[in-house]
């Protein structure tokens, strides 16, 4: 039952966590409502609209980035590499935001663009989210209350089927299915599709890898997600983890997940950065945590994911 307990703890943290960089300019921390940006290449995944949802999707800017919330219809946005660079490898990118928002720039589009530049087809998953107050003042108040002194994140009952994340897992599975269906069009090798997630997106990545065989990522990246203990299957994918030692949410929770992966004799690489806080993503900071992306690319290359193969477009 180790997996059930560990993942319940992870979900409990996610219900109140909002992805944000620790060190930001004061003038950037205000949530400013914006019109929903055009997303002409986004593809609806066909998973059901979120049951019982009443608030419509809305967006805001904060920390110099764009965030989506109240997402009820999941989409996948492809970022394809120049054919001259394409390797055939692909990655599903899952932004974070506590399952209440999605950090679409810092943990989505910017990551995907950087991967495409390295020859990797990247697909940003805009997954369905838990509902938040429709108007911005009420939303801000709800988030402030979650971060107030003495506040405790809710802890849902353990669910062996990851039921608390069932809509999000369904979205991730649909993303893998779509990529494999269109692999020839997108120049993707179906055996080299991985997934990388940030914070809540890291939780979704772990759940997608462990909750069933239909998605089955070839490799996974857990970027500043919790490292709670869980049962690791014998065929678990190679795991890459990046976390800052001053992360206020997950740095003091131990590294049982790394030990579990190694005990199962599955490949695992762990980068613990001295500083970086939470939510560093693709923000350029004066900390070594900024180097996580280069390390991740080198790691997937070490596992043979960047070797150009026959499925790569010509």
Automatic annotation (TrEMBL):
Pfam families: DLH. Residues 1-26 form the signal peptide. The keyword Glycosyltransferase does not apply. Gene3D superfamilies: alpha/beta hydrolase (3.40.50.1820). It comes from the Bacteria. Keywords: Hydrolase, Signal. Residues 106-285 form the Dienelactone hydrolase domain. This is Acetyl esterase/lipase. The lineage of its organism: Bacteria, Pseudomonadati, Pseudomonadota, Alphaproteobacteria, Sphingomonadales.
């Amino acid at each position: 039952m180790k997996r059930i307990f560990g993942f319940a703890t992870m979900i409990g943290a996610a219900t109140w966590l909002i992805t944000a960089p620790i060190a930001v300019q004061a003038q950037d921390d205000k949530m400013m409502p914006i019109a929903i940006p055009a997303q002409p290449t986004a593809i609806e995944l066909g998973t059901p609209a979120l049951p019982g949802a009443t608030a419509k999707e809305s967006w805001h800017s904060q920390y110099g980035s764009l965030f989506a919330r109240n997402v009820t219809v999941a989409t996948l946005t492809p970022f394809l590499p120049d054919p001259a660079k394409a390797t055939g490898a692909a990655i599903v990118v899952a932004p974070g935001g506590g399952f209440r928002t999605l950090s679409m720039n810092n943990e989505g589009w910017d990551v995907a663009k950087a991967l495409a530049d390295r020859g990797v087809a990247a697909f940003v998953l805009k997954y369905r989210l838990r509902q938040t107050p429709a108007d911005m003042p009420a939303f801000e108040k709800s988030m402030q209350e979650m971060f107030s002194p003495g506040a405790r994140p809710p802890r849902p009952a353990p669910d062996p089927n990851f039921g608390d994340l069932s809509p999000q897992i369904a979205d991730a599975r649909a993303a893998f299915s779509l990529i494999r269906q269109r692999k020839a069009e997108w120049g993707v090798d179906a055996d080299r599709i991985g997934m990388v997630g940030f914070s809540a997106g890291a939780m979704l990545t772990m759940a997608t890898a462990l909750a069933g065989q239909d998605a089955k990522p070839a490799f996974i990246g857990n970027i500043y997600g919790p490292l709670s203990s869980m049962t690791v299957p014998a065929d678990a994918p190679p795991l890459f983890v990046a976390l800052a030692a001053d992360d206020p949410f997950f740095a003091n929770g131990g590294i049982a997940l790394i030990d579990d992966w190694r005990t199962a004799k599955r490949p695992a690489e762990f980068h613990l950065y001295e500083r970086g806080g939470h939510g560093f993503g693709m923000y350029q900071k004066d900390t070594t945590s900024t180097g996580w992306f280069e390390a991740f690319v080198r790691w997937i290359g070490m596992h043979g994911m960047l070797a150009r193969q026959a499925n790569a477009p010509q």
